[in-house]
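hey can u check if this looks right to u? its 68 residues, i copy pasted from the old doc so theres a chance i mangled smth
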Amino acid sequence: ICSMEHFEKWTQRIGAPWPAIRVHLLDVMAKAREIWPNLLDELPMKAEYKHVLQLHWKKLHSDFKLNS
């Protein structure tokens, strides 16, 4: 399962500054946590697809869970 630690190791391998990457990952996750759960209710998507997304979110590492 992918975590922030995976991204940190990746930045070390490629020589990218982890703090610069980390701040953007945290920002994206904050926005996703704020927007996606409510947006999912409003989207014109079949209920079964919404359910699949919700199941996927539950399988993510806690660093990336949307509705923890």
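The chain has a mean pLDDT of 93.
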